[in-house]
């Protein structure tokens, strides 16, 4: 058994990005990716609830060329009314880690729980089951998020540093797992990703679990797509693919959580 694992995810799955999601799915299947997590957004940028978009719902429920686990990805996927000030970490994350999409970066528990419960309802409407996993947009989250997730019945989430299982009281058990993700928001970021992503793959070549996260806009750029293809081909040759459930299994089976 290969001790080095690979988990692949597609973010921002929403009606706005349906054509891109289909292209991404086709590419993943062609490369030999057999399992992936797709992150569904209930109401991407206030453009309309995903469960009310018939073509999108039909695609979500239809057959797919690979095994897909569906996860909840924010609610609106945009941060609004960002508080002035905040911690140094929040200010840095807001300025450098996202383009205004850190929806859960500053949300306190009560408001986060409300959005999570609404997101669960939309998710259930599409997939017929509640989501077990949550990914805050841009992997940015407020310290109250684990308690809100526990209250909403969601058992795990993830951040830049790795995967986390949440206990009934909001306790956290982490599995460190770095993530590689391309950036296309600006020309500089797009070009930089072509060098940074392969460098990170080399730096993290011995890590037990490596995550590769794709975004719909990645597939608007031939150079970015070519970089994704090259990196994934190399990782698939040296790592065993795992589903999200398989990646989380050691934490789920952990005897206690603090």
Written account of the structure:
By secondary structure, the protein is α/β, with parallel strands linked by helices. The protein has one domain: TIM Barrel, CATH 3.20.20.370. The protein is built from eight helices and ten strands. The protein has helices at 18-31, 54-61, 88-97, 109-127, 145-152, 187-203, 222-238, 244-252; strands at residues 5-13, 35-40, 67-72, 133-134, 156-159, 162-166, 172-176, 179-181, 209-214, 240-241. The strands form two sheets. Strands 1, 2, 3, 8, 9 and 10 form a six-stranded parallel sheet that branches. The chain has a four-stranded mixed sheet with strand order 4-5-6-7. β4 (133-134), α5 (145-152) and β5 form a beta-alpha-beta unit. The longest helix has 19 residues, at 109-127. The chain starts with a strand and ends in a 6-residue tail after the last helix. The mean pLDDT is 91.
Layout of secondary structure:
Elements (H helix, E strand, L loop, with lengths): L4 E9 L4 H14 L3 E6 L13 H8 L5 E6 L15 H10 L11 H19 L5 E2 L10 H8 L3 E4 L2 E5 L5 E5 L2 E3 L5 H17 L5 E6 L7 H17 L1 E2 L2 H9 L6
Helix pairs in contact: 4-5, 6-7
Q: Which CATH class? A: Alpha Beta
Q: Would you tell me the overall average pLDDT? A: 91
Helix amount, in percent? 25-40%
Which topology does CATH recognise?
TIM Barrel
Multimeric state: single chain
Total DSSP E strands = 10
Gap from first CA to last CA: 30 Å
CATH architecture descriptor text: Alpha-Beta Barrel
Number of domains: 1
Largest sheet: 6 strands, parallel
The backbone outline, from C-alpha atoms, is globular
Number of helices: 8
Radius of gyration: 17 Å
The proportion of strand residues reads 15-25%
CATH H-level superfamily title: Glycoside hydrolase/deacetylase
């Amino acid at each position: 058994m290969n001790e080095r694992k690979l988990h692949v995810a597609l973010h921002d799955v929403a009606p706005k990005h349906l054509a891109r999601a289909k292209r991404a799915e086709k590419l993943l299947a062609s490369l030999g990716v057999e399992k992936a997590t797709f992150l569904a957004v209930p109401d991407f940028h206030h453009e309309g609830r995903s469960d009310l978009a018939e073509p999108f719902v039909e695609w979500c429920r239809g057959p797919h060329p690979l095994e897909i686990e569906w996860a909840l990805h924010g609610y609106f996927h945009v941060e609004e009314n960002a508080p002035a000030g905040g911690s140094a970490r929040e200010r840095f994350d807001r300025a450098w880690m996202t383009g205004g999409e850190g929806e859960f970066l500053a949300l306190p528990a009560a408001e986060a729980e409300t959005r999570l419960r609404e997101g669960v309802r939309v998710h259930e409407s599409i997939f017929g089951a509640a989501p077990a996993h949550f990914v805050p947009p841009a992997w940015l989250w407020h310290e109250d998020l684990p308690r809100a997730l526990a209250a909403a019945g969601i058992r795990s989430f993830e951040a830049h540093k790795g995967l986390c299982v949440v206990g009934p009281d909001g306790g956290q058990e982490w599995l460190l797992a770095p993530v590689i993700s391309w950036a296309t928001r600006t020309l500089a970021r797009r070009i930089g990703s072509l060098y940074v992503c392969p460098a990170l793959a080399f730096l993290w070549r011995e890590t037990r679990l490596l995550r590769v996260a794709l975004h719909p806009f990645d597939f608007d750029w031939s150079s970015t797509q070519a970089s994704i293809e090259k990196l994934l081909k190399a990782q698939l040759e040296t790592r065993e693919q795992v589903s999200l459930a398989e990646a989380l299994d050691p934490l789920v089976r952990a005897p206690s959580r603090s």
